[in-house]
Amino acid sequence: MHTTVRTRMAPSPTGEYHVGHIATLLKNYAFAKQQGGQFILRIEDTDQERKVDGAVERIMSVIHQYGLDWDEGPDKGGPCAPYVQSQRLHIYKEYVDTLVKNGKAYFCFCTKERLDQMREDQIARKELPKYDRHCRALSPDEIQQNLTEGKPYVVRLKVPDAETITFTDLIRGEISIESGNVDDQVLLKSDGFPTYHLAVVVDDHLMEITHVMRGEEWISSTPKHILLYQAFGWQSPIYAHIPVFLNPDGQGKMSKRKGTVSAQSFLDNGYLPEALLNFFMILGWAPADQREILSLEEYIKEFNPAHISAKSVVFDMQKLNWLNGVYIRKLTQEQLTEKIEKYLPADFPRAQLAEILPLISERLVTLKDIESLTDFFYRPISHDKELLLKKADAALVEQQLSQTTEAITAITDWTIPALEQAIRTLQESTDWKKSQYFMMIRVAVTGRTATPPLFETIHCIGQAEVVQRLQAAQETIR
Ligand code: GLU
């Protein structure tokens, strides 16, 4: 019996790391930390055809960007190194040999043509396609001869005939399946690479993994893994299969077709890693007091994998947006300035950041919103005639615009109080309705009806530019 809890995440470098992967990784990470154990990162790159260049580096980088880390892994080493499966081929070979020697696995020399034909026939007979165990009946002499002739082969598991395979899932309880439904799966491919099933079992065993928390898409593989543990005479780890996320609209499994799913893209789109982690914590699990804001430390203390909901949960964008706002509001001005830096568009007037940022920070849903919330400060605006004339006729608006232009031009020290005084004095000295007048200026100066506080905004845009925009507004209504 193992005494130390050891969990792992075992990404295949076949593409982008998904938000669901980070959510699962977080659970494995937190549980290991809670139990004073270790969290291991292992790269499962046995499918050489699907391997994508640079994917390992990107996966490791995105995990770090989310503020998480591993105790043992490809870059760090550890007692079970190497942590990359393609560097462990000799280990799998050795374990497969043992299985063959003990009569638990067998060589299969069937050609691709034979397997294709068999499959076609089975489908035609409306049977479930499955290996027909042809090579299971080969005599030791036949096997030897094939090997001597150098015939390519794979190694398959001898699945027992009529056995019930049972395992307990931490989330779903006991799961049973009849061995008759399990294929004599390939363990070692003809190129000497192990299949996922063999490699995952050998490695989880050798790396002394005690708990496997992985996506529910792997649940149908688990009976195969249990059979392998039995064949080796090893104790299997405890399994927890985590439900997949549903698309934000609640329809179907979350997928690329309905928007972005890559873990990196959420960061690139201005979500804070702390907010995303908090979001993943409360999707399908809640602490005893049901609170929704949790730090990583609190989660590590309170998380219980047995209490994860067995039902799939919707990837609720509204909740994520709300949480992101909560975390943005927690930042000091200094922290926010630092974090928002990489979302600033190239033409953003950086020297004015300290002045602009406090005006809009309350309205940031994501850090990337900085552009849409501030572009009118530094980019040319356009005027909508209808909007300018919404609450007053052209003659009045024209008069307001020209007198405001004069008042603003006359200001000698460009400060917020001076500006406010000039505009308020003008309004008070006329019979202009305050709400109409202020809105009209807002539209004339920014091109929009919703902006940060008016005087601060005008001040930020600058005297000369404001005068120019007021004149352009006048042109628009003529
Ligand atoms: N390599 C598998 C993956 O890509 C790991 C599955 C497992 O956790 O067993 O997710």
Could you write a compact summary of the structure shown?
The chain has 20 helices and eleven strands.
Explain how this protein is built.
The chain is mainly alpha-helical and 478 residues long. Helices cover 45% and strands 9% of the residues. The protein is built from 20 helices and 11 strands. It has a 3-stranded antiparallel beta sheet. It has a two-stranded parallel sheet with strand order 1-2. Helix 17 packs across helix 19 (454-461). The mean pLDDT is 96. Bound molecules: glutamic acid. Residues 10-12, 44, 200, 214, 218 line the site of glutamic acid (GLU). Glutamic acid (GLU) binds at residues 10-12, 44, 200, 214, 218.
The CATH architecture of the domain at 88-242:
3-Layer(aba) Sandwich
Q: Please give the radius of gyration in angstroms.
A: 32 Å
Number of helix segments? 20
Percent of sequence in beta strands: 5-15%
* Spatial gap, N to C terminus: 86 Å
CATH superfamily of the domain at 88-242: HUPs
- Strand order in the largest sheet: 3-4-7
What's the total number of strands?
11
Helix content: 40-55%
**Sheet with the most strands?**
3 strands, antiparallel
Which ligands are bound?
Answer: glutamic acid
Low-pLDDT residue intervals, each spanning 5 or more residues: none
The coarse overall form would be: elongated
For the record, what CATH class of the domain at 88-242 applies? Alpha Beta
SSE class: mainly alpha
- Give average pLDDT, whole number: 96
**What is the CATH T-level topology of the domain at 88-242?**
Rossmann fold
